[in-house]
Amino acid sequence: MQTMRKIIIMLVLGAASFLSVSCDTTSGALTGAGTGALVGGIVGHQSGNTTAGALIGGGVGAAAGGMIGNQNERVTRLETQNAQQNAYDQGYQDAQRRRY
Predict the structure, then answer these.
(1) Contact 42, 61 (CB under 8 A)
(2) Residue 17's pLDDT band (cuts 50, 70, 90)
(3) CA–CA distance from 17 to each of 12, 27, 34, 57, 93 (Å)?
(4) In Å, what is the CA distance from 45 to each residue of 15, 34, 35, 48, 53?
(5) Is the overall model pTM greater than 0.85, yes or no?
(6) If you ran DSSP here, which 8-state letter would residue 48 be given?
(7) Which pLDDT tens digit goes with each residue over 41-96?
(8) Based on the number of CB atoms within 10 Å of its own CB, is 2 exposed (0-12), middle (13-18) or buried (19 or more)?
(9) Mean pLDDT across the stretch 7-25?
(10) CB neighbours of 52 closer than 8 A, spacing ≥ 6?
């Protein structure tokens, strides 16, 4: 029981160290890892192996959350690029109209 507490504490401290990095991938991975570890721990407890369930759930949750966060970053970056391009195009068109 003492070993399991140490493992959980180390996982929580390790995950908390990534909070200083502010990107969607990292925050998605942390959220996924926390949620996955919690659900995995509950499921693992019901089947008699809490630690393994928490570790597996945390790993799967981190991977899924990281992928979702990465996709969110890509969408945000594309939206920003499109907004910049639209603003440039509008300015160019306004300048063309003023010339004539």
Answers:
(1) no
(2) low
(3) 9, 11, 13, 20, 48
(4) 22, 16, 15, 5, 7
(5) no
(6) T
(7) 888 878 888 888 888 888 888 888 888 888 888 999 999 999 999 999 999 999 98
(8) exposed
(9) 62
(10) 44
CA 47, CA 40: separation in Å to the nearest integer? 10
The CA distance from 45 to 22, in Å, is: 33
The H-assigned helical ranges of the chain are: 2-17, 24-47, 50-99
Token duo for residue 63: 């991977």
What's the mean pLDDT in 18-36?
70
- AA identity, residue 55: L
Report whether pLDDT(10) > 80. Answer: no
Q: Please compute the mean of the pLDDT values over residues 11-30 and round it to a whole number.
A: 64
SS3 (DSSP) at 77 = helix
Angle at 69 between CA 66 and CA 70, to 5 degrees: 85
